[in-house]
Amino acid sequence: MGSGKSLEYSDITDIGRRRANNQDAKAVLDAWSHDQYRRRGWVFLVADGMGAHAAGEMASAMAAERIPLVYEKLASRSPPLALRSSILQANAEIHARGESAADLKGMGTTCTVLVIGPRGALVGHIGDSRAYRVRANLIEQLSCDHSLAWEMEAARNRGGDPLPDVAQNIPKNIITRSMGPHGRVEVDLEGPFPIVEGDSYVVCSDGLSGQVADEEIGALVAELPPADAAAALLGLALVRGAPDNITLIVARAGRNEATDPAANAVPWPLTEDDDQGDGHPLPWKTLAIAAGGLLGALVFNPLGDVMKETGLVGRLLPPGLAVPIGWTLTAVMGLLFVAGLVASIMAFLPASGGETRVLRAGARLGKGPHRAFSCALTPPLIEGIVTSVETAADGLSNGERKRALDRVATARQAAASGDLPAALGAAADAIAVYRNSVVAARHDDTIRSTDDI
């Protein structure tokens, strides 16, 4: 079991091309020691806020701040319990803040949290921000989108009637579940998914997934180091217009994060009252009923020593009816004893039905991965990326445009010769030229605006 320090990651965010402010937020909880990794692992979070004015920005910031703090406190009990509890608590706090002022009412945020720990990768999720796993030439979406478009597609796949003509025209950003608008919300938990050395993970807002195809995300993440992959993905979203804020985290597991099948074979409690070590509270009322029933049965038993030695038969019961009444009362007290004893035993047993209260070793929550695509490098994939850069480069200055197009040409030459990794690297260089130009233009605009004051 490793300390987690062989893991590499890069986290990055950008306002995009059309937004006035950045309503996305992100957080990383570092596993800085062997004990921290064993106890709660790495935590990666992306939240995408919704709401007028600064409400969405506030909601996502609250999620990014509160969820890691609460998870840190509870993780030693059970990571899935801690993850669900931390998201629910953050939801309650965001909802309360939204109800406190008219301009904040209804504010909300999506939130996707990835935990990488000894037993694998665990995802907690609300909304349409996503968590992916990239392994070899396959990219898998570990989370499902809580969006109207996703639900209608799911209905089609189940053989229902989702009105296909209508479904095609539904915007992908209409979400059906988020944190904040309601006091209570359902949290999806997925995993844990066993980790293999070299597995890469992406957590992102829809500012990325809405502009960059899953296959492209997988190819860039599989071929490039996390920092280069994150920069290229963000840049490609900018190349394609970036109508929304873009936030993503790319993490690559090393040798120390590979899941050991023997690690932590203890079942994980999934509800508060299954906290390990605290046991169940004693059911005093039912135990008292059982004790009273047993005592009564001893007292009223006509053959018992209590009735005989104390003479209670003659004092409490008519002589002619003492035996039948005694047996009747004994039977009633015996039933009370049995009922109280059974109720006390049942209080110690897991509730039947509903959610499983304990996740056994090797078991998994959720139904993920929900989708999978090949992300193997192909000439059409490379061409799709460089064509986007080529088109966007028309808006650059002459010098920047030439640099970008030179790299586009290099990428095409490498693809034509069959060297697809080199072609992807050149495409990433072309994306970097475009992104750097956009960032520099923002800086120039800021300087000019300041000078005008």
Can you describe what's shown?
With 453 residues, this protein is α+β, with helices and mostly antiparallel strands. It has 3 domains: 8-270 and 360-376, Phosphatase 2c, domain 1; 284-346, no CATH class; 378-453, Up-down Bundle (Substrate Binding Domain Of Dnak, Chain:A, Domain 2). The protein contains 15 helices and 13 strands. It has helices at 34-39, 55-74, 79-99, 148-157, 164-167, 206-209, 214-223, 226-239, 284-300, 305-310, 312-316, 322-346, 379-392, 398-416, 420-451; strands at 8-14, 24-29, 42-50, 108-117, 120-126, 130-135, 138-141, 188-193, 200-204, 246-252, 268-269, 358-359, 371-374. The chain has a 6-stranded antiparallel sheet. A 5-stranded antiparallel sheet has the order 2-3-4-5-8. A hairpin with a 2-residue loop joins strand 6 and strand 7 (138-141). Helix 8 crosses helix 15 and helix 13 (379-392) packs parallel to helix 15. The chain is elongated, with a radius of gyration of 31 Å. The two termini are 58 Å apart.
Characteristic key phrases:
single chain, 453 residues, alpha+beta, Phosphatase 2c, domain 1, Substrate Binding Domain Of Dnak, Chain:A, Domain 2, six-stranded antiparallel β-sheet, five-stranded antiparallel β-sheet, 17% strand, elongated
Radius of gyration, in Å, reads: 31 Å
Biggest sheet descriptor:
6 strands, antiparallel
Give the total of beta strands: 13
General shape: elongated
Strand content: 15-25%
- CA-CA gap between termini: 58 Å
CATH class of the largest domain: Alpha Beta
Fourth-tier CATH superfamily name of the largest domain = PPM-type phosphatase domain
